[in-house]
TrEMBL record:
Highest taxon in the source lineage: Bacteria
Organism of origin: Colwellia marinimaniae
UniProt cross-references to InterPro entries, sorted A to Z: Polyketide_cyclase/dehydratase, START-like_dom_sf
Protein name: Polyketide cyclase
Native organism taxonomy: Bacteria, Pseudomonadati, Pseudomonadota, Gammaproteobacteria, Alteromonadales
CDD domains (UniProt xref): PYR_PYL_RCAR_like
Length: 155
């Protein structure tokens, strides 16, 4: 497994950040790569809730919540993905750093396809790419919090 994480500052209270990230089918509002994020489960929050992230480039991934700590973190397993990964999971957590500031940490563990070559590509290409995506996601979250407008690709 390859692990990658990023912790970034968000200009909002932890309760505001949690309200936004815990809206499972609302990730398209602040994730600049996600075009649509329809809910796939009957339950919109908590363990077992699921969404399909449909990306601007035509690819998609199904994310199912496997862990839910109210006000703190959401853990997900990724399936039905077009990325070159055998398996992947993520955790997104929020922690207050002040009245109107928080840190958001995104962690991802993944096992690339294609054996040793895939593992090497995962270390050299995919892990740095995911770190960059994490920064874009937090930038999109900050933008959405600041103006309430859905972010667009490239935000």
């Amino acid at each position: 497994m390859i692990n990658v994480s990023g912790t970034h500052q968000v200009n909002a209270s932890s309760s505001t950040v949690w309200r936004i990230i815990s809206e499972i089918d609302g990730i398209h509002k602040w994730h600049p790569k996600v075009l649509h994020s329809p809910l796939l489960s009957n339950n919109p929050t908590g363990e077992g809730s699921a969404r399909k992230c449909e990306f601007h480039d035509g690819t998609s991934v199904v994310e199912t919540v496997t862990g839910w700590k109210e006000g703190e973190s959401i853990s997900m397993v990724l399936t039905e993905m077009s990325m070159p990964m055998k398996s992947a999971s993520t955790v997104m957590s929020v922690q207050a750093t002040g009245v109107n500031s928080s840190t958001v940490t995104i962690e991802m563990s993944f096992e690339p396809k294609f054996g040793m070559l895939g593992h090497l590509m995962g270390l050299l290409v995919m892990r740095p790419m995911m770190k960059m995506v994490f920064k874009q996601v937090i930038k999109g979250l900050n933008t959405y919090i600041a103006n309430g407008e859905i972010v667009d690709v490239g935000a």
